[in-house]
From TrEMBL, chains A, B:
Domain of life where this protein originates: Archaea
Species of the source: Thermoproteus tenax (strain ATCC 35583 / DSM 2078 / JCM 9277 / NBRC 100435 / Kra 1)
Domain Aminotransferase class I/classII large: 31-381
Subunit structure: Homodimer.
GO molecular function: L-aspartate:2-oxoglutarate aminotransferase activity; pyridoxal phosphate binding
Protein name: Aspartate aminotransferase
Keywords, alphabetical: Aminotransferase, Pyridoxal phosphate, Transferase
This enzyme's EC code(s): 2.6.1.1
Upper classification of the organism: Archaea, Thermoproteota, Thermoprotei, Thermoproteales, Thermoproteaceae
């Protein structure tokens, strides 16, 4: 019978992809849409590094085109090891790192490696929408740990303890968080690490935005529980190559070797051109200057967005993000249904954003605003239109 | 419990990756190894196309770096559609094409999309070793259809009929074949297509080597059974970017939409840089000239390898490959165990090849020789050493 796998029912088209499709249709119709939906930087990778890659493209050899080891080229894993030491004082050897075809492949292969049907996995609410469909696809049960704006989206460790059961396989912690921009506090981190060690559960830490921090400091949970932490990372945000698909996982060797095996079966090896470029970038003199520059640029946009929200959406409630690319705004004083509002906003006001129900079962009247995809003027205009639409919609 | 998925037991490190690791160790020890193991071209992509990409790298925009649609950029899917028309007179619209992060991702996502535990899938013997672990990982039972050197590795349609059961989900056909270089004959193709239609089963056609043909013509099974065929393709061989990870699947729309969904969850989108390059390549004036040139170069090497085999390995039995990169040589007149021989050959004679038991449960005394990875002189020297080792080993 030419039928299909039933498990596919758990996979859904990514909500941001749906918005992208609608956005592109509007663009074809000649509409100029202000993009506050995309989690994609607008500052390209450093020119020096791109020029070096351009030179390599002229060479008459297969060096740049051939397969690489499935775990990633050693030069890049070494550069990542050095980078983790520089950024957080971490001691992670290249053997404990597997390079992947992006953060999504890091997530997919990590979950494929650890999950058995029936496992429970604790996921914060709100948090990144990418985990739930994968968890369900691999047969795990999603257990939600509610966090709230009032508590600055910090997890309550008491509530977390209550949710842990003998079936708990892992807790997933996105920090800096998408969509709230919250950093896990050092106290929360310590308590969660202790709980993971005591209960022998995995901590999956999603560190996609670890160099995109405006105030405060990133806590590396790996330092607190090196045997329990599997860390998901991406080069999509820093150095801004989302389309090139490169990320990595670090963690205990027995986990990394299995994740490597799954990646080998999924994609054979990570893209070689991107690997070479990132190896050059991480070891270049400008690596930390590039970070400093994009942080300054995105912080200025964040501040402009915060000011615009106070002015145009005065009853919107949000926590000023300490990191990431997003402001998560609770619009429950204006509306009930963020998804219906987002659709109306896109169609009638040509502003794209992502509704809160993609991240939360609670904050359904919220929206996620990206402040990195558009330049300041258009960002402010987008928020002005949100205010206008809210008044009209109320 | 910090344990791992039991299904991982079905995944094994790719045998060629194991050989790569050993090879690299020998290289570090200063040994110059002749590589007859790698299924990797030695002629890089056209310089004109690489130069165009080098120019694009200088542009100060996110165009080249951003996410693409999960299905692949439209420009590339259109170029693939045109290419399929040019190559085989196929009528495949861009909607029926999904671009993937390489042939491996095409295989993984296709099998993830169609398989249920308990399904039976018919796999030729010998054939490419990449399918069996994936089939078992997804819970399918592998049913082997034996083919033989005496019959030119053409499948017997009578035997195939006997293997089809109500549980048969798919037949996998690699043509040009890896490792035998056999092309499916038009008669076999027609009979298999009819059988698939009559029994309502999927035909997975692996067309990785479809432009790498020295004699004869590639049969597109899609033309014979468009509702049954899901075709796996790669740009690793043509235009020689194995490390860049780009491939595609074409087939019925309801299959392609599901395969797209799985790829979105696996890797979000295929690598954008590679997509752009291949779109330019496929639409360039030199596309067919590049194919003509590499075929001429690789045909000359194939012929040199055939001559060398006749001279140095006179009792080796093989079919001269009509396509692909490989000669599959039955060494049963000399040895019993191709794997032990391959190990000895690598360690004592510094020649790497792949033993037959990776492809076959029958041809265990065979070896696969790649004739594209090394230039002619070293290729001949490698085969001379094989002959020398066989005499010593016998």
């Amino acid at each position: 019978m030419r039928d299909f796998s039933k498990r596919l029912a758990y996979l859904r088209e990514s909500p941001t992809r749906k918005i992208d499709a609608l956005r592109e249709r509007l663009k074809r119709e000649g509409k100029d849409v202000i993009i506050l939906s995309a989690g994609q930087p607008s500052i390209p990778p450093p020119l020096e590094v791109r020029q070096k890659m351009a030179e390599l493209l002229q060479e008459e050899s297969m060096e740049l085109y051939g397969y690489t080891p499935s775990q990633g080229i050693y030069e890049l894993r070494e550069a990542i090891s050095e980078d983790l030491r520089r950024l957080g004082g971490l001691d992670v050897s290249p053997d404990h790192i597997v390079v992947t075809a992006g953060g999504q492949a890091a997530m997919f292969s990590t979950l494929a490696s650890i999950l058995e049907p029936g496992d429970e996995v604790i996921l914060f609410d709100p948090t990144y929408f990418g985990y739930k469909p994968l968890l369900e696809y691999f047969g795990a049960r999603v257990v939600r740990l509610r966090t709230s704006l009032e508590e600055g989206y910090q997890p309550s460790v008491e509530r977390l303890k209550e949710l842990v059961s003998p079936k708990t396989k892992a807790v997933i912690i996105v920090s800096p968080d998408n969509p709230t921009g919250r950093l896990i506090s050092p106290d929360s981190a310590k308590a969660i690490a202790d709980l993971a060690i005591d209960n022998d559960i995995w901590l999956i830490t999603d560190e996609a935005y670890k160099t995109m921090i405006y105030e405060g400091e990133h806590v590396y949970l790996y330092k607190l529980a090196p045997e329990n932490v599997i860390s998901i990372n991406t080069f999509s945000k820093d150095p801004a190559i989302p389309g090139w698909r490169l990320g990595y996982v670090y963690g205990p060797k027995e986990a990394v070797s299995r994740i490597k095996l799954v990646n080998e079966e999924m994609v054979y090896c990570p893209p070689s051109f991107a690997q070479k470029m990132v190896a050059i970038y991480l070891r270049s003199d400008i690596r930390m200057k590039y970070v400093k520059d994009f942080i300054a640029a995105y912080r200025a946009r964040r501040d402009a967005a915060v000011d615009a929200l106070k002015r145009y959406v005065p009853e919107g409630k949000f926590k000023v993000p300490q990191g990431s690319m997003f402001i998560f705004v609770d619009l429950s004083s204006y509306i009930d249904d963020g998804e219906a509002f987002a659709q109306k906003l896109l169609q009638e006001y040509s502003v794209a954003l992502v509704p809160g129900n993609y991240f939360s079962e609670v904050y359904k009247a919220a929206v996620r605003i990206s402040f990195v995809a558009e330049k300041t003027e258009r960002l402010i205009e987008g928020i002005r239109r949100i205010g206008e639409a809210l008044v009209a919609y109320r």
